[in-house]
């Protein structure tokens, strides 16, 4: 079959690389084209243009890059039409990928389109769900509550194929009894702008925790792309966390940590699957706060809380996320008290909500659904 895959950022590129492997395992003669990044390139995928051209986040960066983004949308849509694929697979980045799909489908009305990773229609702009029906045949959800959300909002057919992190549960999961003297994990973000915003509050929180508990150790797992940024941010902190780099050390830190202080993001899902009691904090610029408070329609921005349907991880946002408040909240998790026990009990339920039956992998489930749609012309059953 002929697959055209379009992603717009590194996280989608990582998913795309796993999807390529799963599709090739099922369809060795498959032909691929589209837009991807370094991970997909290592899997033998030739991108139309560098992913960096379109990988931008935030209102102002998008506006500055708008002419390039519009040109790349048109270029990608023309390439889809020229390729006439059996299926067009969009991976995340809906502001880019959905515009490509809309233009391509106008020229190819019978084009089958799969959206791998649902837009957050359950959090804000819920009207997008119904509009997606015009250009999307099937949504492959990575969060277990999303199929019900699309059904409620009148969106396209949506099935849960699993989050990529469920493949690493065994690597992540720690034993509560082994955490007694473990360190506090410090996770100030994976993007330069987030690290800069969260740095001062995290620095103050660590200093206060060290004053309360001189024996405490702090560990900061960092991914390679932001290692230099994190090291520069942390260098002047009065209390220095031990920085660990690489997947093996990261997972070892998750398995043995007593507690964690983390910026909101996918890392909170890793922490939840590992069973690490956590305090979540987040800050955005004032303009984004102004817009967000009027648009966001969920009671929490923390993914494990949304999946569990309860606020397992306390979250402190904007002005609430100050060093004193965060230190006090983390300190409450260090002893075997009611707050720690409440979190441990809640997190124990998470794997059961996220794991796929029969040990199937998310990329395998996604590939099976895409092949079924491309071959049969209709979405598989949930």
Indicate the overall shape.
Answer: globular
**Order of SSEs:** EHEHHHEHEHEHEHEHEHEHEHEHHEHHHH
Our Rg estimate from Cα atoms comes to 21 Å
Query: Can you give the mean pLDDT?
Result: 90
State which percent range the strand residues make up: 5-15%
Measured distance between first and last alpha carbons: 23 Å
How many separate helices? 18
Structural class: alpha/beta
Helical fraction: 40-55%
For the largest sheet, list the strands in their spatial order: 2-1-3-4-5-6
Number of strands: 12
Low-confidence stretches: 377-382
The biggest sheet amounts to: 6 strands, parallel
Regarding quaternary structure, what we see is single chain
Describe how the helices and strands are arranged.
Layout: E1 2-7, H1 10-26, E2 31-35, H2 38-42, H3 59-64, H4 66-83, E3 87-91, H5 94-107, E4 113-116, H6 127-132, E5 138-141, H7 146-153, E6 157-160, H8 169-172, E7 184-187, H9 192-212, E8 218-222, H10 227-234, E9 242-245, H11 247-256, E10 259-263, H12 267-274, E11 278-282, H13 286-295, H14 303-308, E12 315-317, H15 323-334, H16 338-347, H17 350-354, H18 362-376
Describe the structure.
This protein is of the alpha/beta class. Helices cover 48% and strands 14% of the residues. The strands form 2 sheets. It has a 6-stranded parallel sheet with strand order 2-1-3-4-5-6, with helices on both faces. The chain has a 6-stranded parallel sheet with strand order 9-8-7-10-11-12, sandwiched between helices. The radius of gyration is 21 Å and the shape is globular. Mean pLDDT is 90; it is low at 377-382.
């Amino acid at each position: 079959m002929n697959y055209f895959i379009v992603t717009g950022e590194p996280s989608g590129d990582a998913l795309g690389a796993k999807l390529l492997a799963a599709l090739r395992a099922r369809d060795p003669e498959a032909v691929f084209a589209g837009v991807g990044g370094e991970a997909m390139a290592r899997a033998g995928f030739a991108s139309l243009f560098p992913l960096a051209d379109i990988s931008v986040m935030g209102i102002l960066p998008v506006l500055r890059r708008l002419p390039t983004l519009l040109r790349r949308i048109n270029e990608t849509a023309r390439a889809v039409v020229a390729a006439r694929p059996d299926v067009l697979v969009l991976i995340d980045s809906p502001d880019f990928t959905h515009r490509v799909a809309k233009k391509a489908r106008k020229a190819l009305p019978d084009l089958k389109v799969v959206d791998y990773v649902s837009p957050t229609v359950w959090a804000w702009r819920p009207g997008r769900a119904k509009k997606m029906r015009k250009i999307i045949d099937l949504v492959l959800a990575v969060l277990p509550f999303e199929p019900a959300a699309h059904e409620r909002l009148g969106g396209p057919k949506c099935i849960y194929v699993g989050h990529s992190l469920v493949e690493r549960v065994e690597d992540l999961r720690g034993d509560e009894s082994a955490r007694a003297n473990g360190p506090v994990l410090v996770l100030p973000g994976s993007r330069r702008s987030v690290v800069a915003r969260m740095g001062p509050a995290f620095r103050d929180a660590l200093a206060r925790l060290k004053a309360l508990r001189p024996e405490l150790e702090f560990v900061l797992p960092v991914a390679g792309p932001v290692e230099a940024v994190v090291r520069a941010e942390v260098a002047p902190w009065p209390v220095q966390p031990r920085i660990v780099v690489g997947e093996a050390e990261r997972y070892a830190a998750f398995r043995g940590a007593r507690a964690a202080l983390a910026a909101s993001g996918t890392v909170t899902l890793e922490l939840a699957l590992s069973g690490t009691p956590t305090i979540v904090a987040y800050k955005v610029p004032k303009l984004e706060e102004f817009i967000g408070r009027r648009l966001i329609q969920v009671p929490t921005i923390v993914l494990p809380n949304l999946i569990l349907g309860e606020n397992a991880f306390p979250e402190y946002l904007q002005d609430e996320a100050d060093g004193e408040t965060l230190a006090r909240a983390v300190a409450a998790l260090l002893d075997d008290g009611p707050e720690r026990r409440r979190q441990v009990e809640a997190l124990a339920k998470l794997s059961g909500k996220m794991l796929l039956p029969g040990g199937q992998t998310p990329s395998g489930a996604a590939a099976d659904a895409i092949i079924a749609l491309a071959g049969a012309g209709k979405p598989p059953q949930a």
